[in-house]
Amino acid sequence: MKYCFNCNHVTAGEPLFCNSCGRSYAVKLCPRLHVNPRNSEACSQCGSRELSTPQPKVPIGLRFLTFLLTLLPGIVLMALAFGFIVAILSRPDMLVLLALMTLALAVLVWMWMQVPLSVRKVIYWLVRRKRKDDRSQR
Fold first, then answer.
1. Largest separation between any pair of C-alpha atoms in the chain
2. Does the pLDDT at position 138 exceed 70?
3. Is the dihedral of CA 112, 134, 5, 12 positive or negative?
4. 3 state SS for 90-132
5. pLDDT band at 93, cuts 50/70/90?
6. Where are the domains of the chain?
7. Considering the entire predicted model, what is its pTM?
8. How high is the pLDDT of residue 33?
9. By the 8 A CB rule, do 17 and 23 touch?
10. Rounded CA gap, 84 and 64, in Å?
């Protein structure tokens, strides 16, 4: 995922351009998609003068901050898991709660597996259609 500092949108994958504003990420690209430095005037490989507009330069501190923010969800999840494990080990009655939660999840999965495949496909189709409708309204 890449974050565009020009329009403040996130593009999934490893894109060359922002899907929202069309700017390239930190480099200039020619029509043949040759990568060139930000300050170049012509493509170093094919000589084309038609280069993309890169997003604005970003200070190092802001880059570091965005990197830390990408790590934050994983750190929070690990802290919660560690706290949950410590709670289970320090209080045996928490084991009963864990067992009940696991049993409830197993029952829900079993119930879902009992739904006929054709009905599940219809549900998947409805959810997918709703997501597409939500995206098209943005």
1. 71
2. no
3. positive
4. HCCHHHHHHHHHHHHHHHHHHHHHHCCHHHHHHHHHHHHHHHH
5. confident
6. 95-138
7. 0.43
8. 86
9. yes
10. 30
